[in-house]
Amino acid sequence: MQALDESCSCSGHGDEAARFCHDNGKTSVTELLSTIRGPWALIYWQDVSSTLWFGRDAFGRRSLLVHWPSSDDSRFLLSSVSPESQINGITDSHTEYCASNNEFWEELSCGIYSIQFAASELHGCLVGKVRKHEWNNPELKKLIEWKRTSVEPKDEKVCSGSCLSPSTEGVTDISASLMRIEQNSISVPAQKVLIALRDSVMRRAAVNPIMQNNEVGGETSAPVAVLFSGGLDSMILAALLHRCLDSCSCSNGRGLNAAVFRDNEIDLLNVSFDGQFAPDRIAAKAGVKELQRIAPSRRWNLVEIDADLLKLTSEIKHVMSLISPSNTYMDLNIGLALWLAAGGDGWLYDETFNTFSVDKQHLKYKSEAKILLVGTGADEQCAGYGRHRTKYKQGGWFQLHEEMRLDMQRIWKRNLGRDDRCISDNGKEARFPFLDEDVIRILLEIPLWEVADLDQTCGIGDKKILREVARLLQLEDVASLPKRAIQFGSRIARESNKKNFGSNRAANQVSAGSVLIQNRTNDS
Questions:
Q1: Are 109 and 219 part of one and the same domain?
Q2: Which of 96, 126, 142 is the last residue of a domain?
Q3: Best CA proximity match to 302, nearest among 239, 225, 374
Q4: Cα–Cα distance between 106 and 167 in angstroms, integer?
Q5: Range of the domain at 91
Q6: Which pLDDT band holds residue 522 (cuts at 50, 70, 90)?
Q7: CA 482 to CA 462: how far, in whole Å?
Q8: Does residue 439 sit in helix, strand or coil?
Q9: How sure is the predictor about 163, in pLDDT bands with cuts at 50, 70 and 90?
Q10: Together in a domain, 111 and 242
Q11: 73 and 179 co-located in one domain
Q12: Around 60, how many Cα atoms within 13 Å sit in the side-chain half-sphere?
């Protein structure tokens, strides 16, 4: 905030504003905000210039909603979340104007905005023109454009990164292996991605006050949790988090409490709407065994969060307010699963008993971790969705690249604002290691055919480079798992289809995931 206070008060944009600030020896607000890495959303009143600054980071990792003045309501409003009273039909002086909450608010598109206000002739009113500013960081602009260095392979035989990679058989110390990679400057795609992801997780796990002195009942609780399906993305994050916490505990002079980290536990949050039979629950249990194999000294807390969709009436209303203005059944299913997972209220299998007796197998447990690592961005950047395979079959490498670029350029609207609202409602902070600026840059520098090979079958060619990363981390079992979205892996989509459409078959006939909740309610 101090830096913003000291920034140039010029609210203009373009070369003229830049020259003005430069001539006065100051940095403009736009220049300052363009230097920020990681997620942010901002509303800032600059009193000296009577200017309101607001915006979101270039990928929209933090929520910010806007209501632009309209003929029905001339007010300009900004909010991190839509008021729940509008969803529940409760009106007050602030919400009576709203005929439809989902139509009233919209996700603010990524960028930096300003309004310089001046008093109008109308009593009690201010007038101003909204300006959207260009990012001043050339490297950031390249990431936003999402242009890949090499999209289509040449006619000559393409050698994959795996054939260039030195053997990792028998490697037991991944940290030492990574050190050798850095020292020898080995430019192997999977190894470069691994290093970038490791650094990304490190940034999101270290030197944060909420990770220190986080005690419950006199015992140090796990400071960081992973949204855990047992799939490829969450397993990579869990394995890297283990290594990063170890590195944190050995760091000196960085403000870290080594005693907190050395015996740390890691919470793995897994949500299921089908008890022990949901695919994600089965995969999560297998994943924990694999993590225990590569990191036996770490305490892995698999937090089993079970839910019954038919019993979540008030919870559904609350989550509907959180996902707004998103308003499809797919949005609600994903939002509800994320909200429950972030709450961390479930059951923990205590292995110290080493028994399957009913009274000892599960203990009630609530994760107190304030940081939640989420795998969002992995599928969009590494061709993990079924539609990517369809585009590749229809139009080859170029069409695949265009579909992936579209996914990345709309991820702020389709995913991130919604997910941030659902997770932060529990007092947790969502962090997205796959959407780190350096990770995005590294993946764009790698030829597309090294990132994915969709001539191969599911579980092999999709997210090919991340499967190689998993093998470098000695996660052999998970490296061949197919993609499962949270709404399917947790079985909430199946339960939602039965509840709202009568059956999975009926839901599939109307593409239930894209059906608007409001429209369906009006029809019923």
A1: no
A2: 142
A3: 225
A4: 50
A5: 2-142
A6: very low
A7: 8
A8: helix
A9: very low
A10: no
A11: no
A12: 23
Single-letter amino acid, residue 334: I
Residue 93 CB: number of other CB atoms within 10 A? 6
Q: Which of 15-19, 85-89, 110-114, 439-443 has the lowest mean pLDDT?
A: 85-89
Q: Quote the distance between the C-alpha of residue 322 and its chain's center.
A: 16
Long-range pairs of 360-368 with CB within 8 A, sequence gap ≥ 24: 362/304, 365/301, 365/303, 367/221, 367/222, 367/225, 367/267, 367/269, 367/301, 367/303, 368/214, 368/216, 368/221, 368/222, 368/344
The token pair at 457 is 């079958």
Q: What is d(CA 148, CA 386) in angstroms, rounded to the nearest whole number?
A: 21
Peptide bond into 138 cis (omega under 30): no
Backbone Cα Rg of the chain: 24
Whole-angstrom distance, CA of residue 346 vs CA of residue 348 = 7
What residues does 454 pair with on adjacent strands? none
CA separation for the pair 14, 244 (Å, rounded) = 41
How far apart CA 196 and CA 433 sit, in angstroms, is 9
Question: Residue by residue, what is the 3-state secondary structure of 29-42?
Answer: HHHHHHCCCCCCEE
- Structural domains in the chain (count): 2
Q: Give residues with Cβ within 8 angstroms of 244, minimum separation 6.
A: 198, 201, 202, 205, 206
Q: Identify whether the C-beta of residue 323 lies closer than 8 Å to the C-beta of residue 422.
A: yes
The pTM of the full predicted model, rounded to 2 decimals, is 0.86
Q: What's the CATH number where 281 sits?
A: 3.40.50.620
Residue 302 is which amino acid?
L
Residue 296 lies in a domain: yes
**Pairing of β 215-216 and β 219-220:** antiparallel
- How many beta carbons lie within 10 A of that of residue 310, not counting itself? 10
Mean pLDDT of 396-423: 97
In a domain, 133, yes or no: yes
Task: Name the strands in the sheet holding 51-56, side by side, starting at the edge strand that comes first in the sequence.
Answer: 41-46, 51-56, 111-116, 130-133
- Asked whether residue 54 falls in the same domain as residue 202, the answer is no
- Of 126, 518, 510, residue with least CA distance to 326: 518
Does residue 159 have a pLDDT over 70? no
285 plus 427 within the same structural domain:
yes
Q: What are 425's two structure tokens? A: 């409602």
